[in-house]
Amino acid sequence: MVTHSTKAASHANRVLFIKDGTVYHQLYRTEQPQEQFYQKIADSLTVLSSGGNTL
User: Fold this and answer.
1) 3-state SS of 23-47?
2) How confident is the model at residue 45 (pLDDT cuts 50, 70, 90)?
3) Who contacts 26 (Cβ-Cβ below 8 Å, separation ≥6)?
4) pLDDT of 52 higher than 80
């Protein structure tokens, strides 16, 4: 599934972040609760949108 929704992405086991057509970053949910994974995705998006290169 491709989505721009953090909430929808937080239900997945793996989330890929694509920047300029390249996989830039990825997260794995493992055993963490959905709410915690949601926050991790949101934090990653904040870094990406601010132009940061370190995740």
Assistant:
1) EEEEEECCCCCHHHHHHHHHHHHHH
2) very high
3) 14, 15, 16, 17
4) no
Which residues does 37 contact at the CB level (< 8 Å), separation at least 6?
10, 27, 29
Q: Which amino acid is at 38?
A: Y
| Predicted pLDDT at 42 | 97
**pTM for this one?**
0.84
* Per-residue tokens: 30: 């493992």
Asked whether 40 and 9 are in contact (CB, 8 A), the reply is: no
In the predicted structure, residue 16 carries a pLDDT above the cut 90: yes
Question: SS3 of 15, please?
Answer: strand
